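sorry for the late reply, my laptop died twice this morning and i had to redo everyting from scratch. anyway the thing you sent over, i finally got around to it. pasting the sequence first so we're on the same page, its 571 residues, then the predicted structure underneath. double check i copied it right bc i was rushing
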Amino acid sequence: MITLNQVILAGALCALANSQSAQAAQTNCSAQFDFTIDTRTTFNYDQINKQGQQTHIKLSGQLTVKTVEHNDEAGWWAIKADNVRAGSGQFSSELDSYTVPFAFKLTPMGLISDFWFPAPLDKQNQDQLKGFAYYFQFQRHPDKQLEMEQDTLGQYSAFYSFKEDQIQLNKQKYQLHNANQDALQTINIASSGHEITPSPCFFTTRKGQETLLFTGKSQSLNLKTKQQYFFEPAKQAYPSVLFSLPTDLVSWPIDNQNLSEEDIAQLKKALVRLILENDLTQIAAHDLAKQLAQFDAVISSLDDVFLKQQLPDNAQMRLFNALGQLDSNNSQLLLGTLLIQADKDPLIQFRALRALSQGRNTLSPELTALLKEQVETGFTSLDSEVTSSFYMTIGAMLYGREPDAQSQQLHSALSEQLSLETDGRIQSALITGLGNSRNEQHFEQIDSYVNNRNKSVQRASFRALGMLQTEQAYMSLEKQLSTPTHHNQMALLSALGKYQLKPAASDTVLAIAVNNSSAESRYAAIKALAAQKNQEGIKHTLKSALRSETSKRNFKAIVELLHNTDNSTQN
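ok and here's the structure:
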């Protein structure tokens, strides 16, 4: 196998063999660009229009792209940045972390659908590199435009204008990835303008500007970023290592050196010593994950540590936690393998699932294939709750990670299996999994179960619609309120509580909270009302209901609502 050290030497020798002419670059469909990216950020903890702390970063360097091959799939491109420097005021420094070569896949529409990295990288480093690739994403067909695109921040609506030899792009509305989990919750586009002069090999020039306004969960953290950038053909050919890397991505070097059998054996022994000769409960999971990263090449050898119960229970939990935070391709595969090999130990399976749900990096092709097969053939466990958790956790995993071609395979697998499944318990788990993914592509399928005669299946559909957080899902739930004595009323009210109710629905839920004969239904209604931002009229009615409320739990819930000032308007 070729190593990076060999490639660097070869790259220097073959530099001048690459023509500087644009015509040659287009013929070979490889090209080099000079770039500058100027970003100014203002952030504060009050209002965005007040003076806040400012940072100014200016990146510059060269980018090289070339066509590559991967799994007999069309549309793969390799990309590498070189001589990347960052300047902030009078300071300037080289940034080696930006120079890792990687690959991206383009759809026929010109949008990125997948990424490939030669070695495990955490999400922050992956996103850092992906940012370069997204400058090469743009649509070229005026008669087949797609409304939505995505980048590392989230999904956005795009408006294109095609004029002679230029393409103009404006982003109009953003929806952040993982807005409910991250500190930043909303993003607004103050201005956006991008101009592309296309060529057979992407473009001759690309320039643009964008100003984005971010708001935190508490609305006290605000960010304003203003970015300007310019890409143009490289003024001088540069001996990028990328030109010497093989055309087939499978043949790319994985690390700076190849590991001999002796190296692997020593690593395995050192890893076992780390795990078995230390009290893992005294090492924070985050720190343990960092230590495990040094042994990533042999992390799969830990399977016996779990399967042969070589650790005390608390230490085993800590190790699972650390593996979930490591979230490399190899650690993902280890956790996935344990799901199958520990089929007689539901606790191991459950902890492996929980660890997988912690990760934020993209799913590896190996883990994706493993999970997809288990969905299609039927996951098995001695504990039916763990079996159900398997399908539910896959949905949560998909929500927590950036969408790509791997994740879409699992979206499709869950959906297809639900259409074939006849067992009500598995149907419920699959529906919940689709809901946990929070992807609106599943709305129609989930909605088809809202009137299912199986109470468990219907309850799962309500929960899933509550998770989707879309107008369509809300309207479907609201429609169910018209059923006078709903046999899944508590699940329905709980799902509605995840939305801001419209006036008519709010009145109906309030009537249930006051008048329903079931204490459980009244409690579910009270909790749904407590989640409303506008509680005008709600508090007055519930305060009157205190006199007749017979349930201590409900009485306490009403009192808490009356004293809650976070969401409500005082009456």
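The radius of gyration is 27 Å.
thats about all i looked at so far, will dig more tmrw
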